[in-house]
Write a structure and sequence with these properties.
Elements lengths: L14 H15 L5 H13 L4 H14 L2 H26 L25 H13 L5 H20 L5 H24 L7
Helix pairs in contact: 2-6, 3-4, 3-5, 4-5, 5-6, 5-7, 6-7
Length: 192
């Protein structure tokens, strides 16, 4: 057992990460309880479930560009990203969550996976990286704003530590770069 009573390896990512998480949570605590922000971040957290918001944007862009092939490829890739993060990376870390159902008054679905990295943040970054390749510039900015809001929402509702969110952002971008490179190598970059 660690000093905090947790099983070793289940929570501790080191003192620097712990201080970062505490500072970020303290900053967010000053915002929690603001009705408008509570609504925005709770809604964003719900919209990020199962990448629902990203599938809707993908479908709209696919219809707009008349590219059903891109809709299907995106859906397959976001599913693969989720599998890698939730069944691979999260299992390797097994980090406990700050809460199991979110901050009091900011109820969200109880996740079945461990905390590190944030799957919402990873899928938001992965999806935004893919979707903004074919979105008009103003829509691209809105997609990134939505991605940042979904990612931040996970620490705001206290279902993730802030470091989980940062790790999710990095993971999502790294997975996008791997996919982009693979698609270029095989000459199918047009499907992204």
């Amino acid at each position: 057992m660690s000093e905090t009573g947790d099983v070793p390896g289940q929570h501790d990512l080191g003192p620097i990460v712990e201080r970062f998480d505490e500072a970020a949570d303290a900053a967010l605590e000053g915002l929690r309880g603001t009705p408008a922000l509570d609504r925005v971040f709770t809604t964003a957290s719900h919209l990020g479930e199962f990448s629902a918001i990203w599938h809707v944007v993908n479908l709209v862009l696919g219809v707009r560009h008349r590219r059903l092939d891109r809709v299907i490829v995106f859906a397959a890739l976001i599913g693969l990203e989720s599998l890698v993060v939730n069944q691979g990376i999260k299992r390797a870390f097994g980090r406990t969550r700050p809460t199991t159902t979110g901050e009091t008054g900011l109820q969200v679905r109880q996740p079945l996976t461990s905390s590190f990295p944030s799957g919402h943040a990873s899928s938001a970054t992965f999806a935004a990286s893919l979707l903004t390749r074919r979105a008009p510039r103003p829509l691209g900015a809105l997609i990134w704003l939505a991605a940042g809001t979904v990612a931040t929402s996970r620490a705001y509702v206290r279902i993730h530590h802030a470091s989980d969110v940062v790790a999710g952002l990095v993971t999502g971008r790294a997975l996008y770069l791997v996919v982009r490179r693979a698609f270029r190598r095989f000459g199918v970059d047009d499907l992204l």
